Amino acid sequence: MKNSKFIIDKFAKLIEQGLVSSKDLTTELFNILKSKRDDFVFKMKITSKDEFEVLSKRVESLENKINKLEKKNKKVRKVRKP
After folding, report:
1. Where are the domains of the chain?
2. Using one digit for the tens of pLDDT, what is the confidence trace for 28-74?
3. 6, 34, 55, 56 from 23: Cα distances, Å
4. Cα–Cα distance, 71 to 50 (Å, whole number)
5. How many angstroms separate the CA atoms of 68 and 82, rounded?
6. pLDDT score at 54
């Protein structure tokens, strides 16, 4: 209940600030969810702060590579074979 209230409050603040564009809204929601994920992992004390920062950068770079490959794959699928 507490987490859902947090997300609803953040969503309401976004609307109040005038982020009407769907792209702005989705990027902001992803940022909020990433920060909550980071907080959760840090609270679990799985890694130290330094290790956590290094690992989060590695994960972010891997996510970027996956996104690039998915975009590349979509472009390849659009080409029709004769």
Report:
1. 1-45, 47-82
2. 778 888 888 878 877 776 667 788 788 889 999 999 999 999 888 87
3. 21, 16, 27, 23
4. 32
5. 26
6. 87
